Model the fold of this input.
Amino acid sequence: MSYQVTARKWRPMVFDDVIGQTHVSDTLRNALAQNRLAHAFIFSGTRGCGKTTTARILARAVNCLNPKNFEPCNECEICKEIIDGRSLDVIEIDGASNRSIDDIRGLRESVRYPPTRGKKKIYIIDEVHMLTKEAFNALLKTLEEPPPHVLFIFATTELHKVPATILSRCQRHDFRRIGLEEIVGRLKFIAEHENVSIDADSLLIIAKKGDGSMRDAQSIFDQVISFCGMTIVAKQVGDALNIVDQELFFRVSDILRNKDTKAALDLVQEVVKSGYDVKEFVSGLTEHFRNMLIVKTTNSTHLIEESEVHRKRYAADSPAFVLNDLLRFIKVATDTENAFRFTSQPRFKLEVMMVQLTKMEQSVKIDELLLQIEEVKKKLHSEGNPSNGLNSSNRQTATPIEPKIEPKEVFEPAVEYKSSQTVQPSNVIVPKPKFAVQENQPRYTFVTPIKKNEEEKKIESQSVPQNSNISLSEIQQQWNTIVDEMRKKKISVGTILGETSPLDLINGTLRIACGDDFHQGTLLRNKEILVETINTIVHARIRVEPILHNDGSHTTEIQRNNVSTTAPVIESSPPNNSSIDNHPLVKKLYSDFGAERV
Done:
């Protein structure tokens, strides 16, 4: 007898021999026992999981002359005809090569004729998803109401390509991927009957390479036997299949722990020189980090699909890594593996990945970092570090530091104050707005001075003659000249400036009365060029503050004359505000942003 590959020689002959699909085998056997067999089945699943094998077993079980426990005997003449592929009652059709509507028309004609010897005429269509849309539509009526002597069995690896109208007319069975231990057990059974000596590590490597497919694992088993002979060890299996040695991955762990970039590049050179597939190396490295992650998370190795020796190494090496670092390693390795599809130099990508992993800093937990910062703050506060500033209790009562004023120059620092209504100097009591304010709720405003930009520094540095005796009337007399000059520089600003008027001049600050928010906002945005123009024309150094000039929107002349240039800001203290002042957010405004209650 000629040689047969293991996948054919050891093909299951009864339902009990189908590995990993007991849910399908039990259902079909019970349907035969209860005489509740459907007229159409569809078997779906990955390659090599037993779909076509189960279809053939079912065909023999239906027509067997001497079934045993609703299993085919495989000894009667009908079973032998089906096994040899010469039965006229079991027709196997390749859906990829018989996919046209004409092929389905021929099938519809043949289903009219009863079986020659068996109980049922069975049609097994493999890769049924390859049929055309027209062929599926031609099959619908026959599939829904076939003759009582006909049984349809469809097999497919891509169930999503089968129309829903076909699926609704079939009893569906989903075949799962075969587990690693089940493949190892089946290969060990075959090796014992074939008198092949193979160790457990070799069986594990072959089973992992099979990736859930029994047929793939059996094909690899034949390849290893051809390379190694009847005695097989793990090292020979790795050489035969060109599988990356697991020791390389543990060397990567040592390199990352020591952050040795040179050793990482040397390892890449070794991988390429050994002829390993770079993408397969990165894929194995991702699985290696995954195993580390599992051990780190569960403190156990029972979820790792590796040999006992490697499991012990994972248990020993995993404590040296932080959980978040392992997650980052997996992310980098996965991104690199995906990038291989778009590069013609995978070695460069691998080198970059290894350098990136060795240079990656260790992760730090945010809560631990915040705790350290709080401890440092407490230490500085206990030592009386002036950088801590004033706390929220004494900030409100502290006397503000008055700026030093040189003789004959009564100028305040160029400070901008932000407010929701009008822009007020620091020595003016801020009036309450007209809109309603909830009772007993203080309002807060920021009084942090804004730094002078380069334009203002340039203006102050210009050698403009200082005229400390400039009056409001002199500015009013030259106002039209100022407006005309402003139109030359920026026509939009000059036009708006022509609709305003100088209101007063207090302590070197010229307040310009604006009729609406638009005019005020435009002048504020162009404040630098406005200051430069006014100072150039009046030959003085003054500041400018555009304000809204409506009834009640500014203080009276009497109030302004009664206010001292060095008077501190008067704070209104609403009743029952202690609970609000102690709120953490309010304290934060006091301590970090210099807020004051107004």
User: Anything to note?
Assistant: Confidence is low (pLDDT under 50) at residues 387-452, 455-467, 551-576.
